What does this fold into?
Amino acid sequence: MGEETERNSAVKYRPFTFFGGKGGTGKTSCAAAYAYSLSQRACRTLLVSTDPAHSTSDILGLPLSAEVSRVAENFWGIEIDAGLEAKRYITSIQDKMLSIVSPVIVDEIKRQMEIAYTSPGAEEAAIFDKFVELMDEQGAGKRFDAIVFDTAPTGHTLRLLSLPEILGSWIESLIAKRQQAVSLFKMGGRFDPEMQKRAEDDPVIESLTLRRDRFEKSRRYLTDPSACAFFFVLNAEKMPILETGRAVEMLQKYGIPVGGLIVNRVIPEDAGAFFEPRLAAQGEYLKVIRERFAHMKIATVPLLRTDVQGLEQVGKIANIIGEIDS
Amino acid sequence: MSGMETKQAKESVFWQKLRSVGEWLWWFVIGTFMDKRVAAIRKEAWDMNDNVMLLLFGDFLGLPNPMSYYALEMLPYLAEDMIPWQRRIMNRQSIVAEKAAQYDFT
Ligand SMILES: Nc1ncnc2c1ncn2[C@@H]1O[C@H](COP(=O)(O)OP(=O)(O)O)[C@@H](O)[C@H]1O
Ligand SMILES: [Mg+2]
It folds into this structure.
């Protein structure tokens, strides 16, 4: 019995775990396996996917949707639909606008709203906002003990995670300029009621401040080593090693804790004569990885006989990946 | 005696007039000076306001703005300024273009 309690308290998890890496290396499989291993240790776990190709549903063998749905005991999943989230955001702005200004003006600037809505950063921002919403409203023990993010291919993810820092300074300068304008309106508006109106509680400063506070909060989550970690999934090949090195440096630059590496699809030693040349090359790359990332936790996941499909298969890698926390 | 009184009265009327002219002049100077100052402040206020608009909605004019998604949530409060602002910017562009056309840069 003593052993039982000891095992339970030994379950280590953090509120937020991210899995990143190049497309096809096995991020989705590893994220699903990690989430599954947590759920099996009585940790209420949410798996979050951003892949528009629905690969998480394929790997779990269960359809996920844009709302949180149950996968198994202590295991939930959601597939964020970036387009849908952006649409919701725009609709709420349009509703607010209709309650403030005349429909004529709304109509006149509709086209401009479309421009911003379809701008290149829009989907990333929509995904990021949903991440923060989940972390803030449902994470850290509220509804889920752990949230596991299966993020999009490396470049995009890094841009996403660097948003709070870049946006932070953009907002600061906006608030400063707007405050200057408002105090000038105050000085110049002594006999001008229209200017006077502008000098009273400015809704622009208010909503800029709200946005800034949200970025700061997400930044606090993302840079807290006790709350968050980022794992890289790679295969024992040459190019991924270089790319992973660059990505690790970039995350460190933004102060985001890197939890370790997962080398996926490692060919077992007893794979047979056919695999011998590959095994030799793989041995070299594994050596390079262990040297290059000597200070990091590294887990290796074997190549399975078949694709990862269904919870049973996921369970096969779950034990190995679960170890990365101990 | 009555002549003295009228002379005094005339004098005081003269001084009164002079004083009121002086006061008027004084307020005229102050007024002009202050008005100019207020006008300058107002112009600065509008310019600063335009700068904020540009930082937020520069992409509407074709300037790339990576933050345009988040800028949209300020739009309800600035929607009324949007059309006049764009007109001002366009005017400024055409003034610059006119000036440039005077000197043949080609
Ligand atoms: N260890 C493994 N053994 C066998 N097949 C794997 C393994 N890891 C991933 N796969 C398969 O490789 C493909 C890509 O994996 P996936 O997890 O979707 O990668 P990513 O999310 O990085 O694009 C999937 O078909 C998956 O089933
Ligand atoms: Mg994937």
User: Anything to note?
Assistant: Residues A 27-28, 51, 55 surround magnesium ion (ligand 2) (CB under 6 Å). Chain B touches chain A through 32 residues (CB under 8 Å). Helices of chain B lie at 2-57, 68-71, 75-102.
